[in-house]
Amino acid sequence: MKKTGLISLIMVLAALSGTLHAQESTVTFNGEGKDFQKLKHTWKAQWITHPTESTLDYGVFLFRKSFELSSVPDDLTVHVSADNRYRLYVNGAYITYGPSIGDIDHYRYETIDIARYLQEGNNVIAAEVVNFGEYRRGAQQTFQTAFILQAESEALSGLDINTGSTPWKVVKNRAYEGIPFTTDSLGAYYVAGPGEKIDAASYPWGWETVGFDDAHWQDPKPGTVEFAVGRGFLYGSTWYLVPRQIPLMEEHASRFSSITRSSGVEQTAPFIEKDTRMVIPPGTRATILLDHKNHTTGFPVLTTSKGKEAEIKITYAEALYIEDPGQESGDGGHFASHDLKRNRNETEGKVIRGYYDIVKPDGGMNRTFKPLARRTFRFVQLDIETGEEELVLEDYLNNFAGYPFEERASFSSDEPRLEKIWDAAWRTMVNSSEEQFFDPYYEQLQYIGDTRIEALISIYVSGDDRLMRKAIETFDDSRLPNGLTQSRYPSYIVQVIPPFSLLWIAMIHDHFIYQNDDQFVAQFIPGMKTVLDWFARRVDSTGMVTNLEWWNFTDWSDGFLNGIPPGADDGYSANINLQFVSALQQAVEIFSHF
Q1: Residues 505, 587: contact at Cβ < 8 Å?
Q2: DSSP secondary-structure letter at 114?
Q3: Residue 164: pLDDT above 70?
Q4: For 37-86, what is each residue's pLDDT tens digit?
Q5: CA gap 472, 491 in Å, rounded
């Protein structure tokens, strides 16, 4: 779990200042207002997968559909999803990535109009699908490698691009190998997925373009389910497909601020600037440390030329560390102790630690390498070893990707430091918001305790409640037979923190008092009751809650072993009891209203 003290402070400052002005959101997104009822039942398309490769293990798979158009249509809307993740291309142009995170019973699909990417004559729709297998992040629920695409309209005469009903092509991209990271290897609780090793010599360059020859690719086979269906269908299924309810992510380029230090190479050209390059001579071992200046997240893109038999290790870190690793901190095991980080602007005498990718160029020109999964960092270090050919670093930048929040509120003060806190806190918020609210580096999990604060900030500062709504729904979906929500969701690793279920009720109450949407709130009343009943059954003759199972975490604090206040398990905790009282008061207000 990440610390949210900085974000909490922004709320306190805003309340005290009286200068926070939130406005109603009028943002719309692609697909909103579509008639999705027809997709509630059986899809016309089917899930497809590779016919011979393992569909459970780590692997990257490329799908292609070629077709001809006599004219470009005004609209060609498609519904698309994949297990685990996909990137969609049309005629070589990158469209988006997905699916929006969910669980197996609420598996998301995107709805996108691809007409403007089409052309007269030959066209190709292509998708890169990755299954992270046993290395997958904790938030990823999965069944098997699979891909599905269905066109919404049949108006185009004779055109069928649906998966399963028309020929597609598929191949396993053997350029990729997963690099697993664990809590032990990173010195912190880590469940955010693997790094990757990319061998460019095995990469099918140009696979997503029209002119690529896919004659040797295989015909995919339907997945192991009979139908692709949505929620509410009379037959069972593996993935219950439901529409994405949040906008597509904002993506834009952001550049590194500086080369902090380098060794083994003359820093003759800062290749991180546009239209510049750096040449690494043959037979060289070089290290280049880059500083983005601000913490960020996304999919960094490295472009190289030449460099056959070279190897580039790319390490990502939120902060540098003093060279003596010292002891693990007591805040959940992070080696990222403040004592080891200290002032993040000071780099002298510090080293980088963190997860990494490895790229092996093939000697080709303008090769572009982009991670399959999100990377989070302020600092990035390139450790380079060249062979008999020079390596040219053409460019390196970050493709930021995150929820498209708009900062519509403002804060002003006579104290300049408070305005800096506002900026830092909003940056923290933006970097922790994608398809869910999460810690972008170590876990990428959505915890109720953190999410409640972030959700409030999202509606205060942007007026956009869609990510908040998704979070409330997602935690409702996580409820267990005992009546409690899971502490974090989606996740295939079950964790229960009973006080967080009370905070879920607080989230519903927040939405109730700020957003004025009775229909949305009413659906959670049954779940609120099951949570309250779990605590009510543990009230003894004193009138207080006691003998609580699971992890009764409150916060990392002195005197709280594992974040648990004294008396929470087998005694009487004022903290837990007062939180229960607060949840009851919030529930009474909602129940009375309805």
Answers
A1: yes
A2: -
A3: yes
A4: 555 556 889 999 999 999 999 999 999 999 999 999 999 999 999 999 99
A5: 15
Which runs of E-coded beta strand occur in 46-182? 48-49, 59-69, 77-83, 85-90, 93-98, 107-113, 121-131, 146-151, 169-172, 176-179
State how far the Cα of 255 lies from the Cα of 368, in Å rounded to an integer: 16
Residue identified by tokens 């007591």 is 330
**Structural contact between residues 425 and 9, judged by C-beta atoms closer than 8 angstroms:** yes
In single-letter form, the type of residue at position 8 comes to S
Q: In a 3-state reduction of DSSP, which class is residue 270?
A: coil
Amino acid at position 38, single letter: K
Q: At what angle do helices 448-461 and 498-515 cross, to 10 degrees?
A: 10
Of the chain, the end-to-end C-alpha distance in Å amounts to: 35
DSSP state of 116: G
pLDDT at 375 over 90: yes
Q: How far is CA 169 from CA 34, 91, 95, 164, 228, in A?
A: 30, 15, 19, 11, 19
For 518-544, give the DSSP string. HHHHHTTHHHHHHHHHHHHTTB-TTSS
**Tokens of residue 515, six digits:** 């957003």
The three-class DSSP label of residue 187 is coil
Position 330 scores a pLDDT of: 38
| Residue ranges of E strands in 159-226 | 169-172, 176-179, 195-199, 221-222
Q: Which tens digits make up the pLDDT trace of 387-418?
A: 999 999 999 999 999 999 999 999 999 999 99
Rounded to an integer, what distance in angstroms lies between the CA atom of residue 383 and that of residue 391? 13
Cis-peptide into 99, omega within 30 deg: yes
Contact criterion met (CB below 8 Å) for 93 and 117: yes
Pairing mode, if any, of strands 250-254 and 221-222?
unpaired
Rounded Cα distance, 552 and 332, in Å: 14
CB atoms within 10 A of CB 401: 18
Confidence of residue 234 (pLDDT cuts 50, 70, 90): low
H-only helix segments in 75-180: none
CA gyration radius, the chain: 25
- 128: β partners: 62, 87
Query: How high is the pLDDT of residue 267?
Result: 66
For 365, the token pair is 């020109």
Q: Confirm if 371 and 441 have CB atoms less than 8 A apart.
A: no
DSSP code, position 264: S
**d(Cα 256, Cα 273) in Å, to the nearest integer?**
8
CA dist 397 and 85 (Å) reads 23
DSSP sequence for 473-496: HHHHHT--TTSPPPSBSS-SS---
Q: How far is CA 179 from CA 56, 64, 135, 185, 441, in A?
A: 17, 27, 8, 11, 16
Q: Whole-angstrom Cα distance, residue 182 to residue 355? A: 10
Q: How far is CA 416 from the centre of its chain?
A: 33
Instruction: Say if strands 258-263 and 391-402 run parallel, antiparallel, or are unpaired.
Output: unpaired
Q: Report the alpha-carbon distance of residue 11 to residue 461 in Å, rounded.
A: 10
Beta strand pairing status for 59-69 and 229-230?
Answer: unpaired
Q: How far is CA 347 from the centre of its chain?
A: 29
